[in-house]
Amino acid sequence: MAIGLATGSILIYDIRSMELAKTLEGPASAAVSQLSFSNKGIFLAAAWEGQQTCHVYSLHKGFAVSEIRQAGQIVTALSFDLYGGFLAVGTSESMMISNYKNW
Questions:
Q1: Is 101 helix (H, G, I), strand (E, B) or coil?
Q2: What is the Cα–Cα distance from 7 to 12, expressed in whole angstroms?
Q3: Residue 48: burial class (beta carbons within 10 Å; 0-12, 13-18, 19+)
Q4: What is the pTM of this model?
Q5: In the predicted structure, residue 102 carries a pLDDT above the cut 80
Q6: Residue 32 · residue 10 · CB < 8 Å
Q7: Are 97 and 86 in contact (CB under 8 A)?
Q8: In what order do the strands lie in the sheet with 64-69?
Q9: What does the alpha-carbon distance between residue 34 and residue 43 come to, in Å, rounded to a whole number?
Q10: Which of 12, 45, 52, 90 could make an SS bond with 78 (beta carbons 3.0 to 4.6 A apart)?
Q11: Burial class (CB in 10 A: 0-12, 13-18, 19+), 88
């Protein structure tokens, strides 16, 4: 389970113990605007208010992070496909699809 904060941090909780497992720091102090888990919880995508980037965290690789940049456009939507291999990143003007091999 993940909770995005107004400070830009993301709290990851272990659903079994309901204890805080990890705190992830965002790229800016802007509020977290979008969170999306892949279907098996392997990846977590996050976006922040007013930011042109989103981060994809690999939860099975020690929270390794990859950045996806939308040049000149603010990220407004994130959604994984049914199998968790593709991520749609939306803005007010366009959409881009990225696959897990790029994360």
A1: helix
A2: 15
A3: buried
A4: 0.89
A5: no
A6: yes
A7: yes
A8: 32-37, 43-48, 53-58, 64-69
A9: 14
A10: 45
A11: middle
